[in-house]
Structure formats: C-alpha cells, structure tokens
Write a structure and sequence with these properties.
heterodimer, A: alpha+beta, 5-stranded mixed β-sheet, 15 helices, rod-shaped, B: alpha/beta
Chain lengths: 469, 118
C-alpha cells in the first residue's frame, strides 16, 4: 500500500519536473525575445507571463513538499525508480517465476538450517549437562579414592580393634550418609559365630540379635558371593532365614562380608541412607573395599592381641609386660612420677595341680585372673608372669596406693570359693610390692624387688602382703 | 595426623538455649572421638539445638562427616537440629560431593543459623 502511494507520488513529481522544464524554456524565450514578442502579442503576453509565474510557484511549492517532508526517503526513491524501471523493462513472467522459485528454495534451505541449528543447540545443551554430571561423578570417584587412602592409613596406624571398627563405621556413614551401621567379627573357639562388636547410629544389638550363625543359608550365600548384598534384592530368596530376618529387624539395607580363604571373618551391616536413596553399584564397591581393609586390619589386630596375651587367662604375657614396664619407666622419668609393681603368687598351687589335675588348676588360674582384672584400673597392666605367678604394673601410683590394691586383691581371693569337681575350694595368694624409683631404676630392678617381697610374704606364712621398705 | 580443638558456649534465644560448638584443626577418624564425646554430653544434657562452627576447621574426612550423620537422627528426633556455619570452600566442597548439603542446614554466619531456631 505504501509502495503504491510512493509510486503515485513519484509519477506526480515526474510530471511536475517536466512542466517546470517546459516553463523554464518559456521564460528563457520570453527574456531573450522580449521586445519582439511584445510587438507581436501586446498585452496578452503579460497575461501569459502571469499564468507561467503562477504555475512555477505551484511547482516550487510541490517540490519543496517532496524534498522537505520525508514521505519518501531518497534511498526509497531510488529503490522505487529501480523497481519501476524493472517493471517497465517488462521482465518475462518465466524469469519472475524462476526468481520466485529460487527465493523459495533459499527460504527452505534457511528453514532447514535453522532446524538443524536448533537440534545441534539442544544436543550441545544435553552434552554439556552430561559432562557436568560426569565431572561430578569423577569428583566423587577422586574423593572416594582419597578417602580409601586416608582410611587405609588410619587402619594401618592402629592395632586396637575398637579404633578399627569406629573408623569403618564413621567412614561408611560419612561417605554414604547412612543412618546406622554395625560391624560384625568372627568370635568363638570351636563354635564360631559372627558377633556384633560395634555399632553407630543405633545401640549395639543384644541377646540373640547380636550374633549371626555362619552355618546359615544366608551367610553361606554371602561367602559364595563375596561382595555386598542389598537385602531387598534377595528378600524372596531368604525371607525365612533367621540371620536374614535378624538383619532386617535391625534396619539393615546392605551387608558386606569380609571373606578370607572362603571363610567369613567380618561383616559390615549398613542401614538406610538419610536421603532414602538407593545404593549405587559404585557405592557398594566402595563399601566392599572399606570392609576388606577394615576386616584385614581387624584380623591383624586379633593376631597381635593373640601374640601379646596369654591364651588361658587372657592377661598379657611376660614379654609384653616388661616392654610396657620399660615404657612406663621412661615416661615416669620425664614427669617424675612413681610406678608401683605388684607380684602375686597362688599359694600351694602345685598341690592343687597334683590333687585335682592341671585342667582343674587352670580353672583356678582363670578365676584369679578375673579377680585381678576386676580389682585393677583400666590404665594398669596385668600379666600372667609365670605358671601361677601374676604381675601388675600401676603407673602414677606410689607404694601406699599399691598396697591398698594388693590388699583388695588378697581379700577378694580369700572370699572367693572355687568349685573343683563339684567340691568347694578356698585359695589364697601371697603378694610382694615394690616401686619405681625407690626400689630401682629399671624394670628388672623393681621386678626383682617385688619378687623378693613376694617370697618374704610366702616365708611369713603365705596369704600375706610384703611391701619393700 | 592432625589435632582438633573444641570449645563450646551456650547462647539464649528467648526461652530456648542454643549450644555453639567451635571446632578447629582437623576432624578425622583419629580426632572424631573427641567431638563425639562433646556431642554425647550435649545430647545427654538435653541440648538439642546445636550450631557447629567450622570457621577454624581446616580439614574434614568422611569419618568426620560420619560423626554428624550418626547424631543427626537422634537430635532431630528430639525436636532439635544441627546447623553448620562458616564452612570454608574446601569443606563446603566435601559437603557437596557427599550430598550433605541436602542433609544439613548450612549458613554463612552464626546469626542466620541462630535465627533459624526461632
């Protein structure tokens, strides 16, 4: 519509310009031949002059309007001229159709390219999202590896079973964000069982819930599989199994065994995640490695405990006792503390052995060991020093305090009635007491001194305590 | 192995009492029992509104994180909560990697963590 209007305006301008040129010619002729024309036309000439001037003024106003008002810009003007000329040139209809078809094909190509670009852009967005997810996954894997390295270092730095199980539990809960976890370890002498030894996020199971039978179908399955098992996945298979049911009742979602030489040695039972999410295969794998590291550390700790304790009484052996005594003396030298040494011997033990046999004698030794554990502090070191001889190392304790402990032990033994072959039996002990640094500078010195005091107690009639002067 | 220093203070918010636990150094399997003892004592004394201030904490391991997870159910079960404040970028990254930013409420400062209890 605007174009048509512009063309009309252009046509008017053309007529006006033509008219203007015509009358300019008239003016030129009129000026050049003024006297001759006046002679010929007389007064009529002035009338003609008036008409020409009027038309010139009218044309001038129209031209002013054309250039001063932006109805059509000069650019549009030339564009219109070009189009008009093209039309005027009269291009054949075929060429116009060809041109239109060409334009359409370009338009189609552009539409196709636009669609392809949209698809590519969507793919790029999708791939960048995948890359972000992959980066998160790799970050997590790097962190997992770092954690495993950290855990391995931590587990190798201790032989204390409680520390090992705590490291396993805390790491498992922290790495997976789980509500609770339990560590099981193999226990027993002939009849082995998996026993819950430590738990977090829940109380340690008690009673029958505390143990799992290694002969049960579910535990056998764990040994065969040798890796983490999600309980919900196999619930149809083991729903009737006692051990499986115990674990379910404790809120276990996943259990990972530590299997060595086709025998289960430990297990980690893991509760549900705080977020309620399921465990991923990577997470199960991580926990399997953690359980293997922890299980191995627990085995080492167990072997170490076996190496430093007496199998019968579960007290420390003489070698470990002397090692600890040397360490305590070094520490006491630094802080100027005293150490009390107590040596205990069971009176007439040979007679008990000869009368009732060694097996019955062993029962007396186990009973005495239990009394010693009960009668001493956790910081004291109690050992089976020889056959029926025991020793107690009491750090940061003087002779007077040591005597109080010795007297308590003497009286506890005196009050205890042992049962040997269904016969009640009374036993007594003799005790010698010495101390560092008053009775010597080395562990050998104070042990010798306590031993001498012990024999003095024996010589004084047994069931007595002698403290070094 | 690093060491962990712990200090705690009680602050009042109306009729409620909030305990702020400041931890400094390294929180790992080796040092976690120290903080475990403090948290255990607070819960035993029925202080269930806790703010853990990480401002001076340089390192936290998974075992350290496990300690918080182990307590959170108990504390929330008693109507309380554990708010984390002043997490350094390296600590925040661990929270994000393990998804703990979805489990715990994390605040930039103590004031906001405090207000959240009101």
């Amino acid at each position: 519509m605007k174009l048509k209007k512009n063309i009309l305006f252009f046509q008017i301008i053309k007529i006006m310009s033509g008219t203007l040129l015509l009358f300019m010619g008239y003016v030129a002729v009129r000026l050049m031949y003024s006297s001759e024309l006046t002679k010929i036309f007389g007064g009529i000439l002035w009338v003609a002059d008036g008409i020409v001037v009027t038309i010139l003024l009218f044309n001038g106003v129209l031209l002013y309007l054309f250039f001063a008002r932006p109805f059509v810009s000069l650019f549009d003007y030339f564009d219109i001229v070009r189009r008009e000329n093209t039309n005027n040139m009269g291009l054949p209809a075929e060429s116009k159709n060809l041109f239109q078809a060409f334009c359409n094909s370009i338009q189609q190509e552009m539409d196709k390219n636009r669609l392809e670009l949209q698809t590519y852009s969507q793919q790029v967005a999708l791939r960048s999202s995948l890359i972000r997810e992959l980066k998160q996954e790799y970050d997590k894997k790097v962190y997992d590896l770092f954690t495993l390295f950290d855990v391995a270092r931590e587990l190798n730095s201790t032989l204390v079973e409680k520390k090992i199980s705590q490291t396993m539990l805390l790491t498992c809960m922290g790495q997976m964000g789980v509500r609770s976890a339990i560590v099981y370890r193999i226990e027993g002498y002939i009849d082995f069982k998996l026993e819950a030894c430590d738990a977090r996020g829940m109380d340690l199971p008690k009673g029958s819930a505390k143990t799992l039978s290694i002969g049960g179908a579910f535990i056998k399955h764990l040994v065969t599989v040798g890796k983490g098992v999600i309980l919900d996945v196999i619930k149809d298979q083991f729903n009737d199994d006692d051990d499986f049911q115990k674990l379910k009742d404790l809120g276990t979602s996943l259990i990972i065994p530590f299997v060595d030489s086709k025998e289960i040695k430990a297990a980690l039972a893991v509760g549900p995640k705080v977020t309620g999410e399921a465990f991923t295969p990577n997470q199960v794998e991580f926990l399997s490695i953690l359980t293997n590291l922890g299980g191995l550390a627990m085995e080492n700790a167990k072997l170490y405990t076996m190496a430093i304790t007496d199998g019968l009484t579960r007290l420390y052996i003489q070698r470990y006792f002397i090692l600890r005594a040397d360490e305590e003396i070094k520490r006491s030298k630094r802080y100027s503390h005293q150490i009390c040494m107590i040596m205990i011997d069971v009176d007439n033990f040979k007679k008990i052995n000869d009368t009732y046999g060694h097996l019955e004698g062993n029962k007396i030794l186990k009973g005495i060991a239990a009394i010693l554990i009960h009668g001493t502090r956790e910081t004291d070191v109690t050992a089976r020093y020889g056959g029926e001889e025991f020793a107690i190392l009491m750090p940061m304790t003087d002779k007077q305090s040591g005597y109080i402990v010795a007297d308590r032990i003497l009286k506890m033994v005196e009050k205890t009635t042992f049962t040997i072959r269904n016969t009640p039996l009374k036993v007594t002990v003799s005790i010698g007491v010495s101390s560092y640094p008053l009775d010597g500078e080395t562990s050998t010195d104070i042990l010798d001194c306590a031993d001498k005091m012990l024999y003095k107690a024996k010589a004084s009639g047994k069931n007595a305590i002698v403290v070094s002067p | 192995m690093g060491t962990l220093d712990i200090t705690k203070e009680d602050k009042s918010l109306g009729d409620k009492e909030v305990s702020v636990v400041h931890i400094a150094g390294s929180l790992d399997a080796h040092t976690a029992p120290q903080l475990d003892e403090i948290l255990s004592e607070l819960v035993h004394n029925k202080k269930f509104m806790l703010i853990i201030d990480f401002k001076q904490l340089e390192y936290i391991s998974s075992a350290g994180m496990g300690l918080f997870v182990g307590w959170i159910d108990n504390i929330r079960g008693q109507g309380g909560d554990m708010h984390m404040v002043h997490l350094k970028p390296n600590i925040m990254k661990v929270f994000q990697i393990l998804g703990f930013n979805r489990i715990f409420k994390i605040f930039e400062n103590e004031k906001d963590a405090f207000q959240e209890f009101s």
